[in-house]
Amino acid sequence: MQRAPEQERAGGHRQGHKPGQQLSQSNKVRSKPTKLVHKIIFSMPAGTPPDRLLAAVRDFAEKEYAPKHRYALALHTDEPHPHVHVVMKAMSEEGERLHIRKATLRKWRKAFARDLHNHGVASKATQRWARGKAKMSKLKGIYRPVRIAQTFPQKARSHPS
What we know:
By secondary structure, the chain is an alpha+beta fold. The protein contains four helices and five strands. A hairpin with a 5-residue loop joins strand 1 (about 20-25) and strand 2 (about 30). It is globular and about 50 Å long.
């Protein structure tokens, strides 16, 4: 009698693997599903010509993404500030996964500012904190008690007199 593979014996998944979890190549259980696409928004202040913004994003995407990754662009002018949504396949045509790090974003921001400049749009590659847009995050030690206090409000205690 031939034994069924371990995956089939365990109800369609490996032992210790819960439905909804994915197995990586090393068969370790992953808690999050693998990211299939990256979503990036290129946004400019109100008054920026949308056609020039779209042209700059096209040039940038052609240089940075097109050689390896498939992508799609969508210009939105439904808000005062024009912005372009880019959806890019996370896995390249050669099977390499794109990992976007902070350094990658800084490099892209500088390259995009050059492309905007080439299309006649004045811009600088600044980070949110330099523009005063960054939010100060609370330290975990401070955040956790606040969250717990909001989640579990303490009951009024009555002390016997």
